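WARN retry 2 of 3 for item q-0093 after timeout on previous attempt; input resubmitted unchanged.
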Amino acid sequence: MGGAGFTLGQLATTLKGTVDGDAARVVTGVASLEAAGPEHIAFVADARYRQTALTSRAGAFLAADDVEGLPAPIIRCREPRLMLIELLHLFHPAASFAPGVDASARVAPDARVHSTATVGALAVVESGAVIGAHVRLHPLVYVGSGAEIGEDSVLHPHAVVREGVRVGRRVIVHAGAVLGADGFGYAWDGSAYRKIPQVGSVVIEDDVEIGANATIDRGTLGPTIVRRGVKIDNLVMVAHNVEIGEDTVIAAQTGISGSCRVGKGVVLGGQVGIGDHVSVGDGAMLTSQAGVVSDVAAGAKLAGLYGRPLMEFQRIWIAEAQLPDMVRRLRALERRLEELTKGE
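OK item q-0093 returned
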């Protein structure tokens, strides 16, 4: 496949789906339901978006089997969200980069840069660092002394990997992220705060993605560890000696305090706050702005400032909306009671 576009038949074969409609129709790109034109294929996540799809100008749709009556041919598949990923890769293949070190980059003589790696303009690779096969260091990346970047990883502009940090394979570090800054550790000596040397490291395992301007601090003694498959959004703070379990997802502006343990498959919504030395069990979910200062059981679903169980938080939230009416009714009852008790 290639050229200016793909027929729906070609796409269906690649996506292991079926075509409902004209398989010979050609599309040249992917677009949202609102922005799509006749040359585009648009994604219908589920039946909730059918009404929007009915007014779309898209030339074709990618949808699940239960979405009916759309105004253009449909590629149907069991997992449309996963197939959307494949579709986007087809129309937007990753850019290729020529291996080599830009003339303006600074690479220490004893650093090891694989012959297939790319080191961009003004990037810095310090003494003893190791850059693996097919790594892409965008311009202005900094890799500290003794740090290791595993094969097929990508560091975007202004990413900082401090000394001794280990980054696994197929890791993506977005612009401005800092891995291995000092942990926030001080002791009061009676007249001033004295800095506790942070001599640990950071270990990022394979297939992790770290968002723009996220920060992951080095441990005081041992490492801060981010396990395989973790996805971290922009502006997330991970403090020293934290360990995050496999396949956990962390949304923007979340803060995880020092020495916490976050289990496997945990979901942390935006602006979640976790106090120090707290354990969050496997599969737990904390909704946006939840705050917890004590351990969270595996599979628990918490919400709200004080990390209440989700159903309890929802009942409180609903009750809060009824408070003005409750107050009016209470005052009316008080007045009625006062009238009934007059003269007693």
